[in-house]
Amino acid sequence: MIRVRQLSKRYGDNAVLRGVDLDAAAGEFVVVLGQSGAGKSTLLRCINRLVVPDAGELAVAGLDAIGCRDERALRRQVAMIFQNHHVVPRLSVLRNVLTGRLGSVGTLGSVLQFFQRDDVALAHECLARVGLSHKALERTDSLSGGQMQRVGIARALAQKPRVILADEPVASLDPATSRRVLQYLRDASRDLGITVLCNLHQVDYACEFGDRIVGLAHGRVVFDGMPATLGEADLARIYDDAHGIHPAAAGETAMPAAQPAFATAGA
User: Fold this and answer.
1) What is the DSSP-derived secondary structure letter of residue 92?
2) Measured between alpha carbons, how far is 68 from 86 in angstroms, rounded to an integer?
3) Tens digit of pLDDT for each residue in 67-101?
4) What pLDDT digit, counting tens, does each position of 207-216 carry?
5) Considering the entire predicted model, what is its pTM?
6) Where are the domains of the chain?
7) pLDDT score at 27
8) CATH of 2-84+162-250, one of 3.30.1330.60, 2.60.120.10, 3.40.50.300, 3.40.50.450
9) 127: Cβ contacts below 8 Å, ≥ 6 apart
10) What is the Cα–Cα distance from 121 to 125, expressed in whole angstroms?
């Protein structure tokens, strides 16, 4: 579903991605770990063409994401979930979710925001999937941060994508809410066959929810494997312990591979 080969991106003299290789299959939940500045966000932005890479190959849902002239066709296949919700506060929860259908209703429908009954029914289904059916008609600015992020997930699902990119989706949430949000994403991946590529800082969440973990450091892949194979030496490479940096220093839990924390999703 996602195939990345030797992907590179520079901003001036700063090489952010340095020959990244990555694969993600349909229905796979892949967590990308790395400290700030490792290149995680740039990788996701290259995949959905918000950023144009300097070199390499990138295929998404069967499309050449670098050479594709029809960016709209590409972005219909790829939904994005952001750290800071990116919802429209004054709109209802249902209306926010319906914006996920704008890429599929044609130019006039997008301008007028005209939706068919099927679109509305789909939006309600997506809200039910994230446990927010009872909030459909409320203004979105009345929700908590965790609920707003769940609206973002429902909006992404309403797009009916083949790929979801999640950039630090739980960075501002408490642990119980974070686990609930990640559980919804993982369930969508498994139930609907959607490939999820999720950037995280938290090692324990990566081990708990990821089917696979990719570790980035200084723009390069330094680990790619199952959570059970992630050890302290791998974490040292990902978090660059040679420079005195470690997950625990940022308030994160550095977890040995054999002891992932499998906690129940919070309320």
Assistant:
1) B
2) 26
3) 877 777 888 899 999 888 788 999 999 999 999 98
4) 999 999 999 9
5) 0.85
6) 2-84+162-250
7) 95
8) 3.40.50.300
9) 93, 94, 97, 133, 135, 136, 151, 154
10) 6
